[in-house]
Amino acid sequence: MKTSVRAEYAQRRAQLLEKLGSSTAIFNSAPHAVMHSDVEYNFRQNSDFYYLTGFNEPGSVLVLAPHHEEHKSILFVRPKDSKAETWSGRRTGVDQAKELYDVDEVLPINELNEKLPAYLKKADRIYYRLGHDEAFNGTVIRHWRKAMAGHQKHGIGPMALEHSGQLLDSLRLIKSDYELEKMRRAIAISAEAHNLAMDLAKPGLYEYEIQAEIEHHFRKQGAMGPAYPSIVASGDNACILHYVENDRQMQEGDLLLIDAGCCVDYYNADITRTFPISGKFSEEQRILYELVLEAQKAAIAAVKPGNNFSSYHDAAVNTLVDGFLELGFLKGDKADIIKDEKYKHLYMHRTGHWLGLDVHDVGSYKHNAEDWRQFQAGQVITVEPGIYIGPGLAVPEDQPAIPERWQGIGIRIEDDVLVTAKGNEVLTASVPKELSDLEH
Ligand code: GLY
Ligand code: MN
Ligand code: MN
Hints:
Largest sheet: 6 strands, mixed
Number of helices: 13
Number of domains: 2
Low-confidence stretches: none
Mean pLDDT: 97
Structural class: alpha+beta
Radius of gyration: 25 Å
Strand order of the largest sheet: 6-5-4-1-7-8
CATH superfamily of the largest domain: Creatinase/methionine aminopeptidase superfamily
Distance between the termini: 47 Å
CATH topology of the largest domain: Creatine Amidinohydrolase
Bound molecules: glycine, manganese (II) ion
Shape: globular
C-alpha cells in the first residue's frame, strides 16, 4: 500500500477514535459465503472493516479502544500457516501486518477471546454493527455480557451495545478524493462497457451475450467484477426490477434495459440505460422514454446543497405524475395522487440511494420521522427514475386500465451523481441518454 493510502486509512481510524471517546468499537471481516458443498464464493471483505483497515483477509477483527492506556487500535489477523496457505491463499500474518497496517497492536485471531476483555473493561459502551455473521454476533454479545457483569463488581464496563453506524456512516457518506478517484475509475470502466453494449445490441442476440461483453470488459480493465448481478433485460423483462436471468433472445423493436456497473478496489458504479436495439423508438416507447428522461433531469437538478434527500425524489415524481395524468394513466387530483402514492403501480421504487463501498451505501436518509438529510458536498447518489408497465399490469381500483399498446415497456435511466459545493457533477455523463444519441 502506498504511504498516502496508509495515511488515509490511519486518518479514518483517527476520526472514529475521536468520536468513540470512552467507548470501544469492534469491526469484523466478512465471513466466507458458501456456494455449494466445498465451494465458496469469492471472498468479499466487509465494507466497514475495509474502510477502516484496507485489509483484505477473512478471519480478522479490528478493535478501537481510545481509552486503553497502550493500544488504541488493535488488529487481529490469521497467523501464517504454510499448509493452510497452500490450500486457500496467502496470509499477511502478524509480523507483516504490524509493518503494513499502522495499528498499535497486531494479534493472532485465535487470541481474540483472551485479549478482547482488556479492551472492553473500561469502555462505557460497545459499538458494533450486528451483521449477517451470526457466529460473530454471538461472540460480541458473549463478551458484552461478561463485561457487564464486571460493572457490578468494579463500577466500570460497557452497559450498552450500540450500532457502530451511528458514528461511522457519516464518515463513509462523504467521499474523500482518494475514494472519488476509485469511484471515477469504476464509473469510467462501466461507462465504456455500456457504450460497447449499445454498439453490439441487435435483434437475434441473447441477453447473456451482451452481459458477457460487459463483464468481460470489467475484468479486462482490472475491475474486481460486477458491483451487483448485471441486469440485461429486453422487451417486457425490463418491467422486472431485479431481472437477472438474462437468457432471452432479443427481438426487432425491443427496448433493452441494462443496469450494470463494476467494482474497483471495493468502490462501485451503478448505471442504467435503456435504448432501442433496432435504433428506433416506437411512438409509445419514445413518449415514455422522454418522460423518464425529463423526470431524471428534474431530479438531477434538485441534487445540490440546500436541498434534502427527499427533494430529488419529489422532483422525479412530480414530473412523472404530470406525464401520467396527461397520458390518461392516472386520474384525480395531482396533490392527492402524490400524497397517496397512487402512481406506485407505474413507478414503485424511490429515485436513488447513496453509492460507495456498498452499492446501496450506508448513511441514514432521515434524521427522524420528519426531517430528511440535507445534501452535502462529497456525497454520491444515484438518480434512477423509471416507468414499468408489465403485461397485464394490475392497477388500483380507482385508476384507469393501461391500454395494451403501452404494456411490456420498462424504462429506467440511472446516473451516479456527486454533490458538489455549488450543485452536482454527473459522473456517468459519458454514457449517452439523449434520444438523438440512441436512435440511428
Ligand atoms: N443496480 C442496483 C440499483 O440500481 O439499485
Ligand atoms: Mn442500478
Ligand atoms: Mn441504483
